[in-house]
Fold each of these.
Amino acid sequence: MSSTLIHPLVVRIAHWINVLAVLIMITSGWAIYNASPLFKFDFPYAVTLGGWLAGALQWHFAGMWLFAINGLVYVAYGIASGHFRRKLLPISPRAVLHDVGEALRGKLAHADLSVYNAAQRGAYLALILLLILMIATGLVIWKPVQFYWLGQFIGDYEGARLLHFFTMAAIAFIVFVHVLMVVLVPRTFPTMFTGRIKHG
Amino acid sequence: MDKSFQLHRSPAVANLERRLFLRRGLSLGALAMLAGCDITDQEGVQRVLMAMSRWNDEAQQWLFNPNRLAPEFPESRITKPFPFNAFYTEDEVVEVDGDSYKLELAGMIREKKPWTLTDLNALPQVAQVTRHICVEGWSAIGKWSGVRFSDFLARIGADTSAKYVGFQCADDYYGSIDMATALHPQTLIALNYADQTLPPKYGYPLKIRIPTKLGFKNPKHVAAIFVTNEYPGGYWEDKGYNWFSGS
């Protein structure tokens, strides 16, 4: 029985650190949102982290280092090793739409776990870009004077607040679909620990 | 502690001396406790989060550019009404008697003569329309005018090589900022709001206006200013908010 490496060690470690970091950032972020809600709802206390605003901010501003440094290592590795190019490219909007349509009809092909279909490529690429946007909008909210130049691209402080919220919502949606797909195709789950698929 | 500090002891200054003393006592007590007791997970997490908050103070001091100005806005963008915010409700706002008011000075300052409102109003005045950002997330634009704080610090002979400038307020609020922010050109002793004498709800008789910091770092009803190398903390900072909290 032989096996093939489909998830390199760096990717697996970065994935699980990112799971922890994003969980900290989103749940503490919900508690911060609740201190001054942008819309006519707030997040249930039970799913927030930090207890009150000061605790939530401490978690958010500690978690951001874990999130950003881990993300930087992952993106640098993905570009330098050719991992992104091999796994996420080529990609076309037509192919992504086609495969998303297939997935919705329950006919998504993912027989070979070492190759991502276009829906996966689209989702993972979008997730990476959204997480980078999360850092950019977060920097403008955290330091609207020092990063004023960056704010000029995203509607200054109040624009960055809105965009930070909607980017969070998009990330939460992709994570939800991602976890749902793992539940539907459970043999993908162990590969994120072992990195390997077995043949024979 | 130098002699003139003792001579100029006012109730506000005595209050802050007592708190600095208590803080030293508390931290020694806390150290003794840590040495003798098991630390629960909860306490361990708390200590990591507090250590990260101190690290974030350092990171923010490094990011802070003393020459970068907070954006200024046209008067048409001023938020009306400008929100009231404090650790108490609006009907509990402290009433300070402006005629008998004197701004006390303490610590590493050469000229510790207290300042009346008339003295302060006689100094050169500057105005700004800037954005106030609350730690809760909301923001509002207002117009403040008064004395540039760096001019005032130079006039009273403050030791600007010291680390901190602390504030003691008439409403029992207290706080402190780093010297680099104290010397920033937009940091003001605000005596007016929207070209009128500062109303009680916005901090009469004076507020320290700092557009490069979050709202809670802008103390109102300031009664005493002191310059020190000893970390003075603050009302909200001692409850867990990040100390530097710069924009």
Note: Helices of chain A lie at 9-35, 53-80, 83-88, 93-104, 118-142, 148-151, 156-184, 191-194.
Amino acid sequence: MRPIVAEKERRQRIIDEVAAASWVTDGMTIAVGAPAPMALLRQLIRRGVKQLTVIDSGLSLDMLIAAGCVRKVISYYAGGGFGVPVVPSFRRAAERGEIEVWECEEGILTAGLQAAAQSLPFLPWRGGVGTSLPEVNPDLKLFSDPIQGETLIAVPPIKPDLALLHAATADAYGNVQHYGGPGWIDLFLHRAADRTIVQVERVVANEDIRRDPWATTIAGADAIVRAPYGAHPFSSRGFYVQDNVHVREYLDAATAAAQHDQPQRLAYYLNYYCREPVTHGDYLERIGVKRLLALYEY
Amino acid sequence: MADTYSSQELLAIVLARDLADGEVLRVGVAMPVVEAAVRLAHLLHGPNMELIFFGARMNVAHLHTVPLPAFAWDRRVVRWAESYSDTGHRFDRLKDWHNHVFFIGGIQVDPYGNTNLIGTGPDYHRLRFRGPGSVGTATLSTHVGRYYIVLNSHSRRTFVERCDYISAYGWGTGGADARRRLGLPGGGPRYCLTPLCVLDFTPESKRMRLHSLHPGVSAAEVQAHTGFPLIIPDHLPVTAPPTAEELETLRTRVDPQGLLRR
């Protein structure tokens, strides 16, 4: 949307989590980074966004499925740690055919994201040759490479409409810096996506970014959301560790719903933590200062 | 020789013995036996090993204790990292992974060491059990010099004649050239370790064979819990039990909390 009147100043890209969540509409493909940008995801649950295709893994994926936001999952791993081999809501929904799974694997996923980033019809990948992956996911095509005749997998582009990420700091112009490096495959997600929203622990001055431009991991995110403790209940490097008590609370509630047909606690969890708090600040009030401060210790 | 030890302690010790100094050990998620084994090998005989936990690469041979983490990305682990592989270049330098070692679990394992993390049931769209997914196992098993299949239980449910789905290709339908025919550069699965025994693969057919029985276990017992006929050699050694040094190092420097004894 180009303004009709020429702007006089460089445009700032800071928006709040409520406005950011409105960028996501029903049926979109979203990519979720690691740690998961929970302040944004809770807003999606609050808004009741539906029919999403979600590129994500683990517990944040499970929560989106539990909340009914997901139609299709692009995931290489849906385990939960804590002796939870498969996260409960994912497992139940997949077994009942309520969600579609685009079966993939870490290397295949990164190849697909890279193909999208480079506007290629596919990128070749070797890992997965000989496995069932091309059978259960017909979008993955075995082919004979034209140079040496080797059998490889053609991985089509995996192109998110939006990448939703969490990072340490950013300035008002979308220059993002991580503490201790970017998360898992966040840069692949950003490179492949049409647009990227990054929630950060702290908004810093442009001067702070320019002090060490080599440390800028994402140059020009489309929007920045200020969200201190925004990855809670997960960890954020340099800020806080995972809130294991809270994660356990979610897992127990989701397991009761998925495996024992007792959805009350999960419904309570989603209402109390995701749907009722209007803003991220309202959510943090429900978690409480004492709990949040305790996450600096381990 | 120590008189009592848990099955998981034995597995960690047996696995540690097979890891050589200088190797790069890639440890995936939720495998406490493997996490203990690589630390133990590192302390006992591997000062030049590189340990990679979920992308965090470290050498901690100088530490007195290297305890198991409570959680995969726990900072008690990653604070020792010298570098990370998740800065946008996962799977770089795959050409050099012949020196890398990997460890893999599975919902199902077949006689040729193919493994399944996708799920079970004849209809993929309505799986009876939906597994966690392939993680990085398809790529790692393709490229690493060798890998180990490490299982916490030994049952007919896990050891099946055919995997419903294959997420990591071991030796396919058998034959020493099974992987070469497909162009897979890595060396394939070396051992499968279970609470009952160590299994390997015959050099010619690459079919699963009993390699050693853990103390007190019989070949008949292993076969009874395996869903396909195992190759059972005439000479079948007993897995060497933990030495006092191995067990003490494991308990005082790797697993002081006793996670492997629970």
Note: Chain B touches chain A through 50 residues (CB under 8 Å).
